[in-house]
Design a protein that fits this description.
The structure holds two protein chains of two kinds.
Chain A: E1 2-6, H1 12-26, E2 31-35, E3 46-49, H2 54-63, H3 67-75, E4 80-83, H4 85-90, E5 91-96, E6 100-101, E7 110-116, E8 126-132, E9 136-142, E10 147-151, E11 156-163, E12 167-175, E13 178-181, H5 185-188, H6 192-202
Parallel strand pairs in A: 1-2, 1-3, 3-4, 4-13, 5-7
Antiparallel strand pairs in A: 5-6, 7-10, 8-9, 11-12, 12-13
Chain B: H1 3-27, E1 35-36, H2 39-47, E2 53-57, H3 60-69, E3 73-76, H4 81-87, H5 96-103, E4 110-115, H6 119-128, E5 132-136, E6 157-161, H7 164-172, E7 177-180, H8 190-208, H9 213-223, H10 227-236, E8 242-245, H11 252-260, E9 265-268, H12 270-273, H13 278-290, H14 295-303
Parallel strand pairs in B: 2-3, 2-9, 3-4, 4-5, 5-6, 6-7, 7-8, 8-9
Helix pairs in contact in B: 3-13, 7-9, 8-10, 9-10, 11-13, 13-14
Classes of the chains: A alpha/beta, B alpha/beta.
Chain lengths: 203, 331
């Protein structure tokens, strides 16, 4: 299998490291490559959209002429894992907690609505343990993280946490071959989501 | 007890401490969930900046231009480094109101500079909610002997360094991110190149002698940092935190050059808003920083700007030794 990690901006190196580790754990052979233009897209068995700034990654995807092709491939079932900024780019509805409506390029492939910077600024960024359906308890790092506030259609939530102003909100959602996470498993070094992702590719 | 068991023990100890930190935050009814401001949260944040550009701005209008161009963050200043250099006098933290106006107008992270060793300016910046604090030599140092103890803050800090020992001293004080000092406000990338190459030389030496304990101990002693930190860097073959290039970057090619030399991203100070084509230049530098390894993309970026619009720049050789900003706070 050949997994691509969108390498235009963000913590793609951490994802590459963790994917290799997860592959080793699963006993799967394959390669993990950074993706910066269209040339390799069609040869991928799955793609990871890393954490970073969603505004920046979205604009760079557009400038690299990948938006349409990527959107089409993901809609047609290319396994996709998005963390933080990645989840924002996958969502069909996006708002910002302070600024409100945002105008930024998105892939808009998943039936979820997210609020950017939902927990606050970097000062309010945190780590904690969360229960993930089918995985168990893992350590999750939230960095200026979004919250998944709406889920419809075939999408469903796999994990949620209690937030002071927001109530019980989802932080991990799946739909078909897509996984969207509000937190960074690549920063806490948890391979669980990457293993789940590899299982989806193997299916 | 074998080494493996010892690690397990240390990890359980760490989990216990994180657990205690969480309980402390719950009791103190902090604004956050779980535990805030842990080392992992502070060092994890700058990794989101990788292959990105942080731009110096002085008002919300410039911040808007930076966000639209694809900056991963902005740095709010009272005056751009070029103007700091021209105006002389004491350079201090930007106005609280100016910083708050920028924070309320954009969605990307907002950084601000405090003076070296000025603990109270840092407290103020943390309190108003700045995402990253730059303890910067561009402002007039408040303490020429010591830097701020950055471990006690929940907000991550970035510090400038001219070589690896200086970077390691800042990391041992709690810096979560490092940048080259370069020579700010000159539009001349030469000093940033010199500093990045100094990092690389030492990193290569450390990596090749990672098992030479005596050498690593000597290096730690002369750098005035712990052996454990030096050993960690030798094993990693890079800094254990994100390292950006800064100081004098003015064109897309400058930015791509710095990433090619091993920087994780770039700060652009006067380069954008002291040029006469800030919008196009900001966008071009973002493109060149992201796609630095693709000559076609760098050409496309370079085509977006004109050398006639670039900031004039200052030759470092024409500066008097006392006019150099990079020598400040290197203890």
């Amino acid at each position: 299998m050949r997994i691509g990690v969108l390498g235009l901006q963000g913590d793609y190196e951490e994802h590459i490291y963790l994917l290799k580790k997860a592959m080793g754990k699963k006993g799967v052979s394959g390669e993990v490559i950074p993706v910066k233009d269209r040339s390799v897209l069609r040869r991928l068995s799955g793609i990871v959209i890393p954490g970073g700034e969603s505004t920046v990654i979205g604009r760079l995807i557009e400038r690299s002429g990948m938006t349409e092709e990527l959107r089409e491939m993901i809609s047609q079932g290319l396994p996709t894992l998005g963390t933080c900024a990645g989840a924002i780019l996958m969502a069909k509805r996006v708002r910002d907690r302070v600024v409100g409506e945002v105008t930024q390029p998105l892939l808009s492939v998943m039936s979820i609505g997210v609020v950017r910077n939902a927990f606050g600024r970097q000062r309010e960024s945190f780590e904690t343990e969360v229960d993930v359906e089918g995985v168990g308890r893992i350590r999750a790092v939230f960095i200026r993280a979004p919250a998944i506030v709406e889920i419809w259609g075939n999408a469903r939530s796999l994990s949620s946490i209690e937030a002071p102003d927001l109530g019980r909100i989802s932080i991990l959602a799946v739909e078909g071959n897509m996984i969207a996470s509000a937190f960074h498993p690549e920063i806490s070094g948890e391979t669980a989501l990457h293993e789940m992702f590899i299982d989806i590719i193997k299916k | 007890m074998s080494w493996v068991e010892a690690t397990g023990y240390l990890e359980r100890l760490r989990d216990l401490f994180y657990g205690l930190a969480e309980i402390r935050d719950t009791i103190k009814r902090e604004r956050c969930i779980g535990s805030c401001g842990t080392v992992r949260v502070k060092i994890g944040f700058p990794t989101m900046f990788r292959n990105g550009v942080i731009m110096d701005v002085t008002n919300p209008e410039q911040a808007g231009i930076a966000e639209d161009a694809g900056a991963v963050g902005v740095m709010v200043l009272d005056k751009l480094p070029y103007d700091v250099r021209k105006s002389g006098g004491v350079a201090r933290m930007a106005d609280v109101k100016a910083i708050e106006d920028v924070m309320n107008s954009i969605t990307i992270p907002v950084s601000a500079k405090c003076r070296i060793g000025h603990y109270m300016e840092a407290v103020i910046l943390e309190e108003i909610g700045v995402d990253l604090i730059d303890e910067s030599e561009v402002l007039t140092p408040a303490d020429d002997q010591h830097h701020i103890n950055k471990w006690i803050f929940k907000v991550p800090f970035v510090n400038g360094a001219r070589d690896l020992p200086e970077a390691l001293r800042r990391i041992s004080e709690g810096a979560s991110m490092i940048r080259t000092k370069g020579e700010a406000g000159t539009g001349n990338v030469a000093e940033a190149v010199r500093h990045m190459k100094a990092f690389n030389n030492d990193l290569r030496t450390l990596a090749s002698r990672r098992d030479d304990e005596e050498f690593l101990r000597d290096y730690a002693r002369s750098s005035k940092v712990s052996y454990e930190l030096v050993k960690l860097v030798a094993d990693l073959g890079r800094l254990p935190v994100i390292n950006f290039a800064a100081g004098g970057i003015a064109t897309p090619a400058d930015a791509a050059l710095m990433i090619w030399l091993g920087a994780d991203g770039v700060f652009v100070g006067s380069g954008i808003f002291k040029s006469s084509d800030p919008r196009a230049r900001a966008e071009a530098i973002v493109l060149a920083t992201s796609r630095w390894d693709d000559p076609e993309a760098v050409v496309e970026a370079q085509r977006m700007v004109s050398e006639k619009s670039a900031m004039q720049g200052i030759d470092i050789k024409s500066l008097k030794p006392e006019e150099l900003l990079q020598v400040r706070g290197s203890a």
